[in-house]
Design a protein that fits this description.
about 35% helix; 4 helices; alpha/beta; about 150 residues; Rossmann fold
């Protein structure tokens, strides 16, 4: 019996400023929903020192573990080819209007949950909202409904 031909996976790079919350959640969603059809990566224009613990907690609530992910600089991915490069914050969109190697460049800004005021419960609620909005967006991408 012959081997099945390997299907090329859709490569997606999600960019944000700090690569500590929104882009990390998008990467987690893509890994979870995209299965073996997608390769997901995330990076930042000015990466933070760690993934925001509230992003990790909010994603864990829906069964997605991003605790092993870490912020990376977008320069790490220069020279690589991606089917989609998606900016999820306005600042990254302005700093990176063009990404070499991107077949399709998309911007969809999400509110930054790390800027939410209040106690931990109120801030966690902001991360849950961002998680759910990003999850819906990624579902659309995986389903092929994004232009």
């Amino acid at each position: 019996m012959g081997r099945e031909p390997e299907v090329r996976r859709t490569r997606v790079l999600v960019l944000c400023t700090g690569n500590s919350a929104r882009s990390q959640m998008a990467e987690g969603w893509l890994r979870h929903l995209g299965g073996d059809r997608f390769e997901a990566f995330s990076a930042g224009t000015h990466p933070a020192s760690r993934v925001n613990p509230l992003a990790v907690k909010a994603m864990a609530e829906v069964g997605i573990d991003i605790s092993g992910q870490y912020p990376k600089h977008l320069q790490q991915y220069l020279g690589e080819r991606f089917d989609y490069v998606i900016t999820v914050c306005d600042s990254a969109n302005e700093e990176c209007p063009f990404f070499p190697g991107a077949v399709k460049r998309i911007h969809h800004g999400f509110e930054d949950p790390s800027l939410a005021p209040g106690d931990e419960a109120e801030r966690l609620a902001a991360f849950r909202r961002a998680r759910d909005e990003i999850g819906e967006y990624v579902r659309e991408l995986v389903a092929g409904r994004l232009d």
